[in-house]
């Protein structure tokens, strides 16, 4: 309702301090960075619409009141009475603040009508206005951040007074009587509609106030609906505005910690305070993994269907340790493992209708750990789990294998001294099968027990692909378990043209793992582990105390996934994977992978064509590694310059990269795969890289 006349800028709104006034319910909420804003602003032909109605509670007094505004989406509602009837659980006698044009249908305009039935709020009201040139903010100017414990009104003048150019008379703080008609519509009283019976546990309004509770009250379904809408809206808004954030958090060590109270609260508080502190405390310390210019590490995809699936899982609160504790949790997971095996073109031995099958683990690290335990079970004939390790078992990895294998050696008791590092091809960084064969033969001759080889499809450093078939032949000849870690790259096999990634799996792999939570649009955590034979796995991990015994388990007709993982408890992770597959379908999943691969190949072409840059040749998927040439600099100085370049780029907030070392040189890694990343983001990042490189070259030349 604000208007511009000459140099006057006016804005009709009401601001309520979040730290004093709790929002109990609302409809048509329009979020604000400062306190909650109610009303509507007109600037030229643009109208910003906000809250239709809201129910507030004064944290200090515990009193409840309503605010109703007609300048909203509900154009057909022409009276306060009709609007109030829409309020769930509206109660007669509760104070009401009205703003807006409630009598337009009767031909009588009342731009601002104020009503109160409780003078307790009167001395907290005041008006404000601003004169001067407009600024680039909502309504033509930025409202002041309220201070003190008061309700802040910013209220434009009456329409007729504005047209006459007269100075409005502010609405003075009320002192137990209605305000006089001084150019603003005088207050009037309406009869509140009959209150509808409140459902059991209803807490809107004044019947039950948090400060009056003797003990911490649980969130009711009605409260959950209200706050749930706020949370979902917040997430949707975050996804829309994510590009406005710096990709890498700009927080310094200890900043978030210093913003948090040292001691926990003694009494509960409204959830809107949590949301307010999310913005104030948490967001400054967030690195935005879903940002379209996030190119560090590997992608950690999140998508709407997966978020909703996780919400359903949390809402159900299932503890799926046994089939009996929730049959749907187990059987949906079994079906999802089979669906994924089909989508990726994996061999039939990994399907649940045979001796093998799949399970959802939290991460590829856990998958590697349980694969080692299964391999120990098989290699020792069950003695490792019963009697402990003898110190004679050995593992085989390459210099490019993920560090989780070395950690797993520590956890299982094999020890890092028994982890053998196999040579790699100097050009592709893939494992050398001939050297693997020699190492295994040497250990066997020394009386050691070669137990597991880990081959990798898509290493973390450069996405090197080990020759699984050739490695598998060595493993079969020596009777060693072959685990294939395809954490990042495995999901790419959803595209038929990338199924070469599966070469050798059908013939040789004993276990195989990949992460839908990296590049397949499924929120962390969701790793899929398949085994060709489940017996060594369950033999290593199955323990059945009396309190877990049940008829279904003892029948042998069901799967108990507690025997396929380290912990006993397990979440209903299959719901989010189910949501993703059904939302996107195979075609949508393939399109996402192909987009990432295509953008990476485009980037590789730009790097190849740009003078002064060196491209790492192996880039079959969506990771590209490269470095500036830094002509004339010694290698150690050139590597330092590359790291300095990365730090400057990351500090800018425009993009986020990480690095690795290959062939003794520092390389920049640019991993593409966030759902929102488009060519414009990759091109912009490359342009920034070139610009910053040239700037450092000029600095170095001086």
UniProtKB/TrEMBL annotation:
Its cofactor is pyridoxal 5'-phosphate. Keywords: Decarboxylase, Lyase, Pyridoxal phosphate. It comes from the Bacteria. Pfam families: Exo_endo_phos, Pyridoxal_deC. SUPFAM superfamilies: DNase I-like, PLP-dependent transferases. Belongs to the group II decarboxylase family. This is Endonuclease/exonuclease/phosphatase domain-containing protein. It comes from Actinomadura keratinilytica.
